[in-house]
Recover the amino acids of this structure.
């Protein structure tokens, strides 16, 4: 009997392993590009408002608070000067409140969209990205309560600017509020200084890794300097140099008395 043996089944084909396309992880910051859609302008505006006018207002506010080191009268005079500016309420809404609301709300919107930040902020940069978001939330919550308590509760500072030192001092007498002020001051200075670094990177001011690294040291020094200024200003209210400040401090005035004329009669 003749048996023809034929292979059973289909032909066997050897499969070769192919390299899968893995996206390259790049260090750095995702630039703002016009081709990314309609969100380009909104992101540009969000980034710009963080520097001007909000960053400029932060610097002015820290410098004004630094006047507390000179005492209640000097601090009250600074508050009175700011409230005497022309159209000061319009300036507050146009250059502070509305930009702050947009910057905060759009920042939360970007965060909640949850774009993969690992690609653009890898390793240590990812921690910086996360810290930037949380410090932004802390800053917004603190500013909201600070404006409500100092502007709309208790004695009205626009009408009674010389009571400003006593009002802040009374608030900081609460240890919990003092802790809130300290934490918020550090968070705000961190958020601003790292925001300056991000602004320069996204707007192409610091192209290249070396330029960004060097500018990072500048921004770190800026953040530390601003935080020290803020904490020293807080210390001026609670340090004991001006305890129980009056709500109506007397300005320091030099009194010059002219000598009595010859032959004048004293009564």
């Amino acid at each position: 009997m003749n048996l023809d043996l034929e292979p059973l089944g289909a032909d066997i084909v050897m499969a070769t392993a192919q390299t899968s396309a893995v996206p390259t992880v790049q260090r750095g910051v995702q630039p703002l590009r016009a081709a990314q859609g309609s969100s380009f302008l909104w992101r540009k505006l969000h980034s710009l408002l963080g520097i001007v006018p909000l960053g400029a207002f932060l610097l002015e506010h820290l410098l004004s608070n630094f006047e507390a080191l000179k005492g209640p009268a000097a601090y009250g005079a600074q508050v009175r000067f700011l409230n005497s500016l022309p159209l000061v309420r319009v300036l507050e809404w146009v250059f502070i409140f509305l930009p702050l609301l947009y910057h905060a709300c759009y920042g939360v919107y970007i965060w909640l969209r949850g774009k993969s930040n690992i690609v653009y902020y890898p390793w240590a940069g990812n921690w910086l990205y996360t810290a930037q978001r949380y410090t932004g939330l802390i800053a917004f919550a603190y500013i909201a309560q600070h404006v409500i308590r100092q502007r709309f509760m208790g004695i009205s500072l626009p009408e009674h600017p010389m009571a400003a030192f006593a009002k802040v001092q009374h608030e900081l007498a609460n240890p919990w509020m003092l802790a809130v002020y300290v934490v918020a001051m550090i968070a705000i200075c961190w958020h601003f200084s790292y925001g300056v670094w991000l602004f320069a990177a996204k707007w192409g001011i610091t192209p290249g890794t070396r330029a960004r690294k060097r500018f990072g040291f500048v921004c770190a020094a800026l953040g530390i300097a601003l935080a020290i200024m803020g904490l020293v200003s807080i210390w001026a209210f609670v340090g004991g140099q001006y305890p129980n400040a009056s709500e109506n401090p007397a300005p320091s005035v030099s009194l010059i008395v002219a000598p009595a004329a010859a032959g004048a009669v004293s009564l």
Q: What stands out?
A: Residues 193 and 223 are 5 Å apart (CA to CA).
